[in-house]
Prior knowledge:
Structural class: alpha/beta
Number of strands: 14
Bound molecules: 6-O-phosphono-beta-D-fructofuranose
Largest sheet: 8 strands, mixed
Organism: Irpex rosettiformis
Radius of gyration: 24 Å
Protein name: 6-phosphofructokinase
Low-confidence stretches: 51-70, 79-95
Distance between the termini: 48 Å
Shape: elongated
Amino acid sequence: RMKLAVLTSGGDSAGMNAVVRAVVKAGILKGCETWVVREGYEGLVRGNIEGGRAEKVSLPPHQPVNIKDESFLHNLRFGDGELLRDGTSDLPSGRSLKGRYIVRVGWDDVRGWFGVGGTLIGTARSVAFRTPEGRLTAAFNLIKEGIDALCVCGGDGSLTGADVFRAEWPSLVKQLLQQGKITEEQAKTYAHLKIVGLVGSIDNDMSMTDMTIGAPTALHRICESIDNIESTAASHSRAFVVEVMGRHCGWLALMAGVSSGADFIFIPERPPKADSWADEMCEMIQKHRAMGKRKTIVIVAEGAQDKDLKPIRADDIKDVLSDKLGLDTRVTTLGHTQRGGRPCAYDRIMPTLQGVEAVDALLEATPDTPSYMIGIQENKITRVPLVDAVAMTHSVAKAIGEKDFEKAMSLRDPEFIE
Ligand code: F6P
């Protein structure tokens, strides 16, 4: 019987809770024992301290068929190191998850998680997991709990971490055996870690998938904000420079521009010439103003830059609009309002379908199959080798760093950006 743990890692995104819910419920329905790891990879490294094994939280022993009994935490919420009671629990007060990062969960524990923003099991950008010692401890903690399958939901960095962990796994097991931390039998039983990745990121910056979990919600949020900005911009006939997230990827900025009819957009993948972008932008905006537009919206991706790789900042754009066109200009940095909040419908449906596929991929995994990343391409849920998706994503960043923008675009999303 597969023991399956799910974790969320890196920057949170709307839809991560739907992933956890889908993986837990699909896992139970397919006969797995289901666990969550709190606080991302950091939780894997910390494991279950205070000598308390997570099973102590569990109520009855597993009942294979009756999913109604599959609740261990009684609908409690995961809080900051504590379980927060939601009023329905009959667990004795004071029961806490402090010191327990790898926790068995059941059917009812993830009820209602669909529509909640962020990630209820917590996430972190773990420094410890980036070290070989950290990953060795993480491997030990998993083996200690008897977990043989891991589902990671996170962005590019988190899936890179998953890929490294999987590649190192045999050597980690060997080291643990040599150090006498695990037995020969455990080394044999846990010789292979089954691992699967789901892409949770608002940036939509992962190659080999059309969409990442949380990107549609973030885009929706940006559009709402720009709608709000537009009315005040029009009232005062002002210009607004709106900075959006996306790290090194321009998808959010580009799509927000298309959805809101922005006047000008700056994205990292299509950098303008250092000495001409200001004039080009002004010419375009003047044209729009001449046509009677009372408002000007310029969207700048946080990773925007010119062809010489010099960052183009919102304040640089504001100065140009004020100085060259005499426009009364304001800058709005949307920041984390883009990342938080309730997931839109698509960020509930897609993670659910992908979560089910992730469980299937783990159940079907053999030592010879690659670890998969679950994606979506042309509206079909897909499995692609994790190692390939990670490598291709890194080659986009590399091409941008080498100023080979055509190559970067062709690797990222040739059809759309062209
Ligand atoms: O990767 C998601 C993201 O929101 C990026 O768009 C942004 O650059 C970054 O994370 C912000 O990170 P933090 O929340 O750590 O400030």
